[in-house]
Prior knowledge:
Elements: H1 3-10, E1 18-20, E2 41-43, E3 64-66, E4 87-89, E5 97-98, H2 102-106, E6 111-113, E7 121-122, E8 134-136, E9 157-159, E10 181-183, E11 204-206, E12 227-229, H3 240-243, H4 247-257, E13 260-263, E14 265-271, H5 278-287, E15 300-306, E16 314-320, E17 339-346, H6 353-367, E18 372-377, H7 388-394, E19 398-403, H8 412-424, E20 431-434, H9 435-446, E21 451-453, H10 454-463, H11 468-481, E22 496-498, H12 501-512, H13 515-519, E23 523-524, H14 526-532, H15 541-550, E24 555-558, E25 561-563, E26 583-588, H16 596-603, E27 608-614, E28 617-622, E29 625-632, E30 637-643, H17 647-664, E31 672-675, E32 689-691, H18 692-701, E33 706-708, E34 715-717, H19 718-723, H20 740-756, H21 764-777, E35 781-784, E36 801-805, E37 811-820, H22 829-840, E38 848-855, H23 860-873, E39 882-887, E40 898-907, E41 910-920
Helix pairs in contact: 16-17, 20-21
Amino acid sequence: MKPHIKDKIQDLKVNTTKVQLNSGRLKEIPYKLRICKELKYLDLFGNSINIIPDWFYEFKNLENLSLKNNYFKDLPIIVFTIENLNCFNISDNQILKITDHYFTSLMRIEKVDLSYNQISYISDDKITYSKCTNLNLKGNKLEQFPIALKDCNNLEKLDLSENNISEIDDNIFDNLENLVELNLSFNNLTYLPTSIGKLKKLKRLILSGNKINHLPVEFENLATLEYLDFDNNPIGRVPVEISAQGASGIINYYLSLGDNEQLFEAKLLIVGQGNVGKTFLMNRLVSNDTPETCSTEGIDIKNWAIKTLSSPNFRVNIWDFGGQEIYHSTHQFFLTNRSLYLLVWEARTDQHQISFDYWLNVIRLLSNNSPVIIVLNKMDERIANIDEKSLKAKFKNIVSFHKVSAITGQNIDLLSENISNEINSLPLIGDKLPKVWLEIRKILESLQSNYISLSEYLGICNQCGLSNKRALFLSQYFHDLGVFLHFQEDSLLRQIIFLKPEWATNAVYKILDSKEVIQRNGEFDPELLDAVLFEFESDKRPYIVTLMKNFELCFEIDKNIFLIPELLKPEIIDFDWDYNNNLRFEYHYDFMPAGIMARFIVRTRNLIHDNTFWKNGVIIQRENTRALITTDQYSRKLFIWINGDNASFLLEIIRKELNDIHQSLNYHDVPERIPCICSDCINSKTPHLFNYSFVRAIGVSNVFKTIPCEISYTGINVHKLLGLYHIENTEHDDNPIYSLDKILTDIIEISSRILERKYQKKIEDLFNDDIVDLLRTKGHNVADQTRSGSSSSGISAGELDIMIRRNNGIPITIFECFRLNSCGQKNTVVSDHINKLLSKYDTHYLKRKFVIVFAESNRLDNLWANYTKYIKEMDYEDKYPYSGFALKSDLHNNIGAMRVGISRHENNGDTLEIVHIMLDMFNKK
């Protein structure tokens, strides 16, 4: 018995209601515990207990009992005599089966955790009375869905994941009408029973890692389903655009799949300054000629069929932006994960590095790091060199440089070959689509019109056998793919489908580029609109204005009078402002995209105070509190000054709007700054600025009470400083992309891709970069910490972590990546990284974290055996005690160069997991 446990036992009193004797090396339940007649909560996790004494029934008030991670081989029957027991945890023991009436007795306890035992059999006895709402049988050896559960109609959560279940009775779900969450992942299921359609309250269904290749039509009855995970099943992956539609979209996709074809299609976006030959280059690539052409106004789209390793008829949709700047608000309709960029530069001019910086930053943000090929055009006239090495070091999505002449055709073949290779390696290529979807698309593309009505579209779909409901799922998919545009959430735009996105966006650009609108500082009315859009049908002009409002490009300032904030005068207008005693906040951008302030003005138009706004600033008011928000494009900063009683609340509103804009631009981590509050800084225009995230982390860890000001050299109370900013984002964000199970299956797939790649040098930064990029292609909001500084060893910045966050900024999980060539008792590399993962980096008590080990040993199995032994025997200093390790060979489809295991650790009664993935990098070249 450990000394601190002995002390706890000595302190027990008759009226003690809560006892925790965790990891105390106990072999039996201490007799002294018997005096605690009022006991309600008892936690005996992590001991060596295998029997419960007869006097245990005296705990009449016991509500919560944990026997987790002990040595029980059978269910302790005496537990069932405790009538008030609501929560019973006996996970991580050695129970083999549950026979006779014991399972019936268990189901009279509201929450039961039997996970990670060795259970292969559960009695089939009918349960006539069940109180259980939450049952966990994860990580056992069941081969059949327990028949005894069929009448447990109070069950709300059921976890049967990580078993060997291959059979489910067809009527098993008939009476489980209250089930809200069902996890059957990582079993051997090949089918699902039709009775699953009777789960009318089901919200979460996890089926990843099975052998399912079709769904019963009854799946359509799951009207309440919010999250569905089907990853790693033979039925195939869901296109990312379909996943974005949620569970109903996924079900519609699978039920529609039937006869299908693979989609080999991607976008090639040609951007750059005006008059550099982008249109000439497009024509040379598509038809190997350069017809007479004038400068492209707006956007031009052409289809180009090329041969790739995946398909002899790969469809490339080329978007030529002419000299047109890509407006940030409309970017989502230009871009998908299947996008490649050509940044064209005119070789005869010595354009400054800033030009490259601008375009490459725009591409990096808008495309979430899509690959870029830089093309130096007009090499027949003059050759100008650029610093390729420096550009590639800064912008890691640059894949190559080419010098060509669109006029003569010189080097075009090499460029075309490079495009073919890069297009083919884009993520998500080869998704399966129902043939009927492709047939409908061909019909729509054959129409000469720029748009059709919703009723016309539904008529076409009905003729092809699609119901109206499925037709709307399909139009949403086309919309997300950028093939056609259909804004279903807007009552007006819902009635029209833009068959040619360039027609709609060019109309928008026509207004934005109009001299008349610019001269009126962005203001326009129906009369001016008619003059500007004279080439566009008059009855469609209201749709264009509504489209601009959806793009956050304009808003209505008076009846039928609209304003485009981006076209306002940049000069500051006159206003009075007292800068003393303001709540202040700043954003510091390394690259500041155009249009942030314009979009903010549109979003906060109902809060604008006394029409006080200009291109780079606005004053908003809520009740008796005002905020001044300004931007400076030259310093790349956004400033916030707030006066009033509810300053922190108004700041929360402002941050929410700005963070939403940043998220839409894939700009997830704009540095935030708050001013020092010492006497030298409190009313200074140039105070010392603290990193807000850093100060908040210090406040959470509570290690340091003060933080030094670099101007006055005085210590500032951290909690007093944070007390001014009551702005924690508590918004609930339940996006399915944030599922830890989905992250797990995604990282396994990503790890297998890492193993397929070749590297010239064994530099873990390269591996980390690939992991970050591939996670982002899966839709995850990844904050790459690996460039933030050097590691504790001083070897490489690449030894730091990677974090996945929700859209509201809250962390979901952390990754540690490091190299390893041996793992003995004296090796501290592993323990250093594990301890960082458990405590140093985790201020949010994350439930699951990841370790990726780049193994550099010629004997992978030996290294893995030593590593798992090290994890089991490592000293966790009682803070996160080890409770179990599960080998997970089923997760990686027997890939010989990968090993996966999950260790479990305790934290104040909760369990957290670390997923350990070891990749064999020894033979990488």
